[in-house]
What does this fold into?
Amino acid sequence: MYPLEMDTKVKYIIIINYFNRFIKINRREYLALNVYVALCYYKLDYYDVSQEVLAVYLQHYADSTVAINLKACNHFKLYNGKAAEAELKNLSDVCSSSFKFASDLIKHNLVVFRGGEGALQVLPPLIDVIPEARLNLVIYYLRQDDIQEAYNNFKDVSPTTPQEYILKGVVNAALGQEQGMNDHIKIAQQYFQLVGGSASECDTIPGRQCMASCFFLLKNFDDVLIYLNSIKSYFYNDDAFNFNFGQAKAATGSYKEAEESFLMIQSETLKQDYVYLGWLARCYIMTRKPRLAWELYLKQETSSESFSLLQLIANDCYKMGQFYYSAKAFDVLERLDPNPEYWEGKRGACIGLFQQIIAGHEPRETLREILAILRNTGNAQVEYIIRIMKKWAKDNRVSVT
It folds into this structure.
């Protein structure tokens, strides 16, 4: 692994100070230096300051391709892709003599502003022309869940900037998790720690995200929350952040807060992910809302993941003494797979529920459902258990027919 050049930000600050000296001497003669200063501020993530400096130059040269493109990039960071694309439209309308020269850069940025639209057509030919083209192609593959292709396009790149190290970490983490390869997980941890632990990045948002990612991979969720809490206000409506924050909260036993975080997620893709469903079901169960967990299962198509969700509901409800839904879940499991363990789980849940009925903690009418669930099993113990339950029902005038 190569040493990370973490003095990059210091270089930009030195350049800004150096150029500002000339600008103060003669603002008109050195007007173009404002573009370079604005670019440095952009690289430092000071997008609003970059805009202010850039405006000085654009007042005199409103059709500058470089300046308008940088303004569009600032708009993308400050607002969204549509605002950025509107600036590039202005550039194409102006159509200055330098526009053709910058056409590759414009095409590249439009792909980014449009969330990857046209990436496979535009980016590959630009890999040797624009350094960011390869990075954005890798990001496109990650968003398409084509982890292997993302890795193939980035495996031979030796990172030198924080952004490249972060992307290396993300790709290796994704590949390691997808294929169960611990070597890639360890490499990802190292990349994240290198960025998050560096002097120039440790107090930045990406730096803290990196440290959170490093501890997440190490399953040290208390430390994950330290870093995520420090940047939470910046990601209130961010699905990826809320997904990770929810997992960390749930892993540390803060199920109510975890549930709140999961329910803020808007992405339908994430909401169908088994990790999301499993954690949300567990949060419902741990906060004594097992019916909501059961409803999550009922909405799923039959699959290996829905079977796993059913197992989680059956076992977690049992541990929490929520025997009604545990019995229902074990009953379905047993019918799908006649494993003796599922009968044992169902038997224990039914008896536990019966005890709760006797103690007055569950409605007596529930006994009818218990008997129906038990009759789904062709085990010799069933008739004995049913006989005891029926006798109690008769003695206590509870109708079970």
Summary: The two ends are 72 Å apart (CA to CA). The longest helix spans residues 340-358. The mean pLDDT is 92. The CA atoms of residues 371 and 386 lie 6 Å apart.
